[in-house]
Write a structure and sequence with these properties.
By secondary structure, this protein is mainly α. The chain has one domain. The chain is 80% helix and 0% strand. Helix 2 runs antiparallel to helix 3, helix 3 crosses helix 4 and helix 5 runs antiparallel to helix 6. The longest helix is centred in the last third of the chain and has 35 residues. The radius of gyration is 21 Å and the shape is elongated. The mean pLDDT is 89.
C-alpha cells in the first residue's frame, strides 16, 4: 500500500524546468530578507516574506500558489524592468566620478578602486535584472499551461 502511494507521488513529481524558478525566488528572497531585516527595511522584508511563502507553496505544488506565483512573476518582472531603467539613468556617473577623483591627485588610488568596485556591482545588478525579466515572464506563462496546472493539487 505504501509503495503504491510512493510510486504514485513520484510519478506525479517528475522533473519540471519551471520548478527551478520558485526555488531561485525562494533563495533570493531569503537572502534579501536577511539583508532587509539587518537594515530595517520592513516593507521590503514583508515583500520578501510574501515571496518566500508563495515560492514554498509553489514548490509544494499547491494550487493557490500557482496563481499567486503567476501574478508575482509578472510584478517582479515589471519591478525589474522599472528598476533597470532607473539604473540606466546613471550610466555615466561612474566615469564622471572617476574624472573628478583623477582631477584631485590627493584623493588617491583607493577612491578609484572604490568607484571601480561600485561600477562592477552596478553592472552585475543590471545584468541580473536583464536576465530575470524574460525568465520571470516565462515562468508566468508556463504556470498557466494546462499540463503544468495539472501538476498542482487543490486545497483539501
Amino acid at each position: 500500500m505504501a509503495l503504491s502511494a510512493l510510486a504514485k507521488t513520484s510519478a506525479n513529481r517528475r522533473f519540471a524546468a519551471w520548478a527551478i524558478g520558485p526555488w531561485l525566488l525562494l533563495l533570493v528572497a531569503a537572502m534579501g530578507g536577511v539583508q532587509y531585516l539587518k537594515h530595517g527595511d520592513y516593507i521590503y522584508l514583508l515583500a520578501a516574506l510574501l515571496v518566500i511563502a508563495v515560492s514554498a507553496g509553489c514548490i509544494l505544488r499547491q494550487a493557490w500558489a500557482r496563481v499567486a506565483m503567476r501574478w508575482m512573476a509578472v510584478l517582479l518582472a515589471l519591478w525589474a524592468l522599472i528598476s533597470a531603467g532607473l539604473m540606466l539613468q546613471h550610466w555615466g556617473d561612474f566615469e564622471r566620478a572617476r574624472q573628478q577623483v583623477q582631477a584631485q591627485p590627493k584623493l588617491g588610488e583607493v577612491l578609484i578602486w572604490m568607484i571601480d568596485r561600485a561600477q562592477r556591482t552596478w553592472q552585475v545588478g543590471l545584468a541580473l535584472k536583464v536576465i530575470a525579466i524574460p525568465l520571470l515572464l516565462w515562468l508566468a506563462v508556463v504556470l498557466g499551461k494546462p499540463a503544468v496546472q495539472a501538476q498542482f493539487r487543490p486545497r483539501r
